[in-house]
Amino acid sequence: MFQESQFGSQQGGASVSLWLADSIARTPVAQPPQDWRARLREWSDAVELVPDLGQRVGSLTWFRGLATCIGLCATAIYLSPGFQPVPGAPGALLGEKQFDEVRSQMITPLALGADSGHRMGSTDAVQPLRQTPERPQIELNAQVGSSDTLSRALSRAGVSSGDVATINALVGSDVAGGVKPGTRLDIILGRRASRDRPRPLDRLAFRARLDLGMELTRAGGVLSVKRIPIRVDDTPLRIQGVVGDSIYRSARAAGAPPKAVQAFLRVIAGQVDLGRIGAGDRYDIVTAYRRAETGDVEVGDLLYAGLQRASGKSIDMLRWTKDGRTEWFEASGVGERRGVLSSPVAGRMTSGYGQRRHPILGYTRMHAGVDFAARYGSPIYAVTDGVVAFAGRHGGHGNYVRIQHGGGLATGYAHMSRIAAAPGQRVRRGQVIGYVGSTGLSTGPHLHYELYRNGATINPLSVKFTTTAQLAGAELSAFRAKLAQYKGLHVGEQDRFAQKALGPVTSGK
Fold first, then answer.
1. Are residues 174 and 250 in the same domain?
2. Number of domain units in the chain
3. Residue 6's domain spans which residues?
4. Angle formed by the axes of helices 12-26 and 34-46, to 10°?
5. Is pLDDT at 425 greater than 90 in this prediction?
6. Pairing with 343, which of 6, 30, 363, 382 sits 20 to 30 Å away (CA)?
7. What is the dihedral of CA 140, 145, 150, 152, to 10 degrees?
8. Handedness of CA 384, 385, 386, 392 (dihedral sign)
9. Measured between alpha carbons, how far is residue 99 from residues 102, 112, 121, 472 in Å?
10. What CATH number does the domain containing 324 carry?
11. Which of residues 229, 249, 272 is at a domain's end?
């Protein structure tokens, strides 16, 4: 509103007037006469439109500037827009009952016992309880862990040791092999007689096996057990399909369980290089499969492994038990196990077969075996099946075991700390026959392993044992009948006992 003078002590109004006069004078169009310019300068000096209110306070010029300022402010206020309040309708008043209902949803009632609105918080007439009343029952859900037992799972859930002992006595014969990890335990604990005593078990329900459910209840203070049989279909599961870029992914995509596919690959790998199985080959898997009427399933061992190759020999392998030992047999009834133990002890070879300087005797002589360095007391295994021909002290061999394997072959194990076999005993591949020691002519704990052919020692590393079993007679007929039964299974075969209740067994092509 006021402009500071930039020309010494001249007033802002005079400066404006002079500037206006000079501008008019410099305008090239219509030059005003000199008398008019003089009169304009005189008028601007006489009248100050915008005086400085900070100077000559109280003078006529000052009051004229004040009036001008007030007029301008009044004009701005008069021309300003109005701000009127927006009218709103008042809310309906709540009645007493409605107010109580709304109040029950506020935070305030939480301090008064979370009343519902119909019944408000307690008054001073209410006396607090000395102790909180107990629940009449507690319902719990627990699970048996991977390395857990039924007793530990129950104790962890709060079941008393006395009730756990009673449960073991009632169901011990049904869960002798242990409860499957992940089994759910539905537990109900009842009211206890006093606070210093554990709650009694009122009810326990769990799945003891795929085909058996157990339910224990307390009646008259005594626990009793109810066994609930569950129907199970044990029809083997057959999966067939064509190999794509990966036999594992193809079998999994067809619905084969991971356990069955892994076992199938191990069996096939013993007959053919897995890298040579190409696209277009057909696989055939039969595995033990149990399905309960409740829908639960249990995948068992692999029973049959087949591979039809587009180029090359097809493979048919059947799992069969002969003389108490389960092996894989070809369709012709010939079983063959390759890759038996290459080392009879878990250790490293320190001395080979041949001439060497004896560490104790001090001269060079024939070393008729292979030495394996191992820790004292490490178990020594039979490299293949046979009969123990000798077990005892044997000169420089110390504690020594010799096993006849047939066909003129025999193995010897020397310097044992302890012998775990007896003469005449039949042993099997991988069976422990003794423990590493340093008896006889030995400078430290190790195993001296020898191989004999027709009574003469040979290099043990030059022979790789292969054990072959041959089925014949009635056993071969039973074997072929079982093979035909597995190969005759229909892919996607239905459950035999409850098709409507269970639906089809999962399978694939």
1. no
2. 4
3. 1-65
4. 170
5. yes
6. 363
7. -80
8. positive
9. 5, 16, 14, 94
10. 3.10.450.350
11. 229
